[in-house]
């Protein structure tokens, strides 16, 4: 069984792939699905096991998750959802993985169930650990110990929408936190505003991305949410190369502010997620986004920008 944390891990997996025909991936987050993409693209029989009933459950609602799930299933990936991997069978070599009533043959198994913050050194130093299991930090990424800063997967921050503790476990977040921690450690002053869990990935022949809260996540925080969703195209539909795109936007009913967005599309997902992330950070309301002065050219986009149309669809529910 392999995990994937370092380049050396990847080299080991690439070597093992040469003698494998059937692969089981445990975990259906972004890393797990990207690994499944790599295997099925290389012609291996691929099965993904996930304890959650949907894939990408942390940042995608069920309806958007199904958009991704369908595309993987069309490429031949078997998804065993709502089942835990209970046992790995075999002697010197892996032979199968048991998940509930399923016994799935496997020559290679990848554990992609996630990571835990490495806080051993902080505990030994008496530094406070937060409720998420990460090292508790303030807006300057300072820990409970004076002149000690933390950043990256080990550092707990806040969600600027719910104002609750958050542990993003994302590379881009780690870079931004590291810059803030470095500035402050050097004697200057900088703050980190919190993590919206903005994420994007390319899988198979499409892209996915999300930022802010999901519907289920918002409900956990007691927020009343309105959702708007549209299916459009990345270019004018009549133009060669136009690809489908689905956009979902979440609004908080009372304030009418944008609090989340999810996109599945053939291209240009990244910058749309970046735009929605900025809209959330600036506390933008739906009517401000709808009035955005967006551009248009048939070769690169539709006349009606998909994220604007999704916000307009949500507004009709008020």
Mean pLDDT: 94
> Low-confidence stretches at least 5 residues in length (pLDDT < 50)?
none
Main sheet: strand order = 11-12-15-14-13
CATH topology call of the largest domain: FAD/NAD(P)-binding domain
The major beta sheet can be summarized as:
5 strands, antiparallel
The CATH superfamily of the largest domain is identified as FAD/NAD(P)-binding domain
Helix content: 25-40%
Number of helices: 9
Shape: globular
Listing every helix as H and every strand as E from the N terminus to the C terminus, the arrangement reads HEHEHEEEEEHEEEHEEHEEEHHH
Query: What is the CA-CA span between the terminal residues?
Result: 51 Å
The secondary structure category is alpha/beta
Task: Report what the structure shows.
This protein is of the alpha/beta class and 318 residues long. It has three domains: 105 residues, 3-Layer(bba) Sandwich (FAD/NAD(P)-binding domain), CATH 3.50.50; 65 residues, FAD/NAD(P)-binding domain (3-Layer(bba) Sandwich), CATH 3.50.50; 117 residues, FAD/NAD(P)-binding domain. It has nine helices and 15 strands. The strands form four sheets. A five-stranded antiparallel sheet has the order 11-12-15-14-13, sandwiched between helices. Strands 3-2-1-7 form a four-stranded parallel sheet, covered by helices on one side. A three-stranded antiparallel sheet has the order 4-5-6, with no helix packed on it.
């Amino acid at each position: 069984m392999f995990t994937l944390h370092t380049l050396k891990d990847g080299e080991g997996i690439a070597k093992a792939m040469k003698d494998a025909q059937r692969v089981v991936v445990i975990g259906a987050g972004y890393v797990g699905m990207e690994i499944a993409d790599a295997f099925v693209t290389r012609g291996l029989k691929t099965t993904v096991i996930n304890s959650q009933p949907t894939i990408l459950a942390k940042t995608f609602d069920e309806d958007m998750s199904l958009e991704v799930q369908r595309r993987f299933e069309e490429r031949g990936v078997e998804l065993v959802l709502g089942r835990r991997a209970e046992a790995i069978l075999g002697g010197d070599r892996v032979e199968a993985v048991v998940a509930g009533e399923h016994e799935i043959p496997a020559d290679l198994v990848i554990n992609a169930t996630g990571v835990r913050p490495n806080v051993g050194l902080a505990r030994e130093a008496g530094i406070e650990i937060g409720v998420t299991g990460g090292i508790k930090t303030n807006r300057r990424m300072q820990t409970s110990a004076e002149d000690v800063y933390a950043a990256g997967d080990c550092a707990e921050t806040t969600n600027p929408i719910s104002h609750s503790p958050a542990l993003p476990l994302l590379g881009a977040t780690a870079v931004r936190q590291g810059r803030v921690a470095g500035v402050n450690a050097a004697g200057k002053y900088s703050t980190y505003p919190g993590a919206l869990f903005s994420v994007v990935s390319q899988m198979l022949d499409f892209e996915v991305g999300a930022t802010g809260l999901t519907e289920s996540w918002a409900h956990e925080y007691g927020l009343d949410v309105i959702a708007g969703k549209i299916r459009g195209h990345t270019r004018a539909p009549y133009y060669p190369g136009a690809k489908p795109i689905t956009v979902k936007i979440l609004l908080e009913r009372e304030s009418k502010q944008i609090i989340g967005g999810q996109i599945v599309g053939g291209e240009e997902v990244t910058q749309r997620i970046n735009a929605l992330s900025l809209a959330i950070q600036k506390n933008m309301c739906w009517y401000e986004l709808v009035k955005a002065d967006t551009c248009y050219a048939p070769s690169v986009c539709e006349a009606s920008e998909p994220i604007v149309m999704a916000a307009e669809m949500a507004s009709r529910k008020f």
